[in-house]
Amino acid sequence: MASFVDRVVLHVSGGTGGHGCVSVKREKFKPLGGPDGGNGGNGGDVILRVSAQTTTLLDYHHAPHRHATNGGPGMGDWRGGKNGETLILPVPDGTVVKTKDGEVLADLVGEGTEYIAAAGGQGGLGNASLSSQKRRAPGFALLGIEGESSDIVLELKSIADIALVGFPSAGKSSLIAAMSAARPKIADYPFTTLIPNLGVVQAGEVRFTIADVPGLIEGASDGKGLGHNFLRHVERCAALVHVLDCGTLESDRDPLSDLAIIEAELDKYAVDMSYAGVDGEVVPLNERPKLVVLNKVDLPDGKDMAEFVRPDLEARGYRVFEVSATSHEGLRQLGFAMAEIVKAARDAVATAPPKVAPPVLRPRAVNESGFKIRREEKNLEPLFRVLGEKPVRWVKQTDFTNEEAIGYLADRLAKLGVETELFKVGAKPGDTVVIGEDDGVVFDWEPTMMAGAELLATPRGTDIRVADIGDRPTRSQKREEQVERREAKAAARAELEAERKAGIWTESVSGRRAQAVKESNLDAGDDD
Length: 528
What we know:
- The protein is of the alpha/beta class.
- 28% of the residues lie in helices and 19% in strands.
- It has 12 helices and 18 strands.
- The strands form 4 sheets. A 6-stranded mixed β-sheet has the order 10-11-9-12-13-14, sandwiched between helices. Strands 3-1-8-5-6 form a 5-stranded mixed β-sheet. A 4-stranded mixed β-sheet has the order 15-16-17-18.
- Strand 10 (197-203) and strand 11 form a beta hairpin.
- It is elongated.
C-alpha cells in the first residue's frame, strides 16, 4: 500500500448558490405588504492551504473528488440563505498546482499560503431585491449558480536547501541519518529509498535542510529506476551534493564513471521552467553549486579509491570531501561547506531587488459590449451563438418555468444590446440563437419581445409577451394582414366613388335622410 504520493489529479467543485425566494409580506390588516423574499446563500469555495502538518498527497490519492457545501435558499421575511462552508484542503509546503495541460496555476510555498481551486456559485436574488419603482411586486426570483468545477494536478516539490544525488546504495540515506535527526530506511540492497527523505542540519549558526531522492542509474531519463521521477523534489535546492560510493564491489563501476553518468542524467532532466522561485529564475540542476562526497572511506578499499580519484576531481574544479557515514569522519567539514553555500544563496536572495512583473492595465474599451455573437451553421441552417459572462450568467439565473422571469431576462438582454447586435450580424426572425457554449439555451429568435415588462399590467408571475408567445403572429402573417387591410380600404373607396358617380352620393345629413325617405316611398308604392 502506498504511503507517499507526490503527484495526484484532484477533481474539485465549489458549492452551488441557493435560490432566491418569492414571497409577499402578509400581516393583519395588510394583505399585500410588498415583496419580502430573501436572497440565496453563496456556495462554498474549495481552497488549498499549505500546512506544516501535511507531508504527502496520499489523502487525495484515495479520495480525489472534493466538493464544497451548497448555499441555502432564501426565505420569506427578508431572511437570506446560509452561505456554504468553505472546504479547506491542506497540502504540503512546496505544492505546485497545474492544469492537465501543464499550465502552472499556483506555486504554494510558505505556511498558510492559499489558492482558491474552485469558487462557489453565486446565490440568487429574492423578489425583494428585484423590486423597483416600476416593478413593485416581482413574482419571480433568480436561481443560484453552480460552483466552478475543474480537474487540477498537484505536484509536490520538497523545500530543501541541499540535494543529495547518486547511485543506489551510495550511502545518501546513511549520510542524512548521520548528519541530522532523520531516520530513513537503510539496508544493504539497491533502491532502499523509495520516497524522498528530508533532514535538518545545524552547522554553526546556519540551519538548513538536506534531501535525497531514490538512486539514479543510467537510463533514468528513459524511465529506468526510480530517481528520475523524484528529481522534482530537488528543483528548489540551492546546491547539489554528489555522493560517490568508494567501496562498491561492482567491477564495472568506479566513482568517476558514476559521476559522469549522474551528470548526464541531470543534463537530460528538464527543470520545470513554467514557474520561478523566490529569485524569479529557475536554474538548471547542473548549473547550480556542487560538492562531491567520497563516501565509505572507513573501508580499506574505500580509502584507497578516494585517494586515487580525488586529484582528478579537484582538477575538474570540484570541492571534494572524504567522509564516512558510519564513523562520522569528515561530516563536520562537509556540514560547514554546505552551510556556506546555503548562506551565500540566502544572502543573494535577501540583497537582490525583488523582481516584480510590471502591472498590465487593460481598461475596458468604451464601445465594448461585454459579449460577442458568433455565426455558425448547423444542418445547413444559420446559428447565432451569444457568448459573454453576463448573458451566460443571466441565463443560468433564470427560472424558465416562470413567465415573468423570462420577460425579465428579455429585458436584460435587450438593455445589454443583444437584439441590436443580432440585427447587425444578419440574424433574421426564426433563426436559431444559442446563449452559451454546448450546454447553452437554444431558442428561435423572434425580435418582437419589447422591453418594459414592468409597465405591463399583468398578474404577478406572468408576462403577456410570453403567455401569448404561441399565438403571436409572425412577421409574414402581419405583412399579409396589412396587405388585406389595404385591399379592403381600396375596395371601399372604389365603391363610394361608384355611388357618387351614380348620383346617390350626398354630402349633407338632411340630403341623405331625404334620399332615404324617397326610397322608402317608392318601396311602399310598389307594394300597393
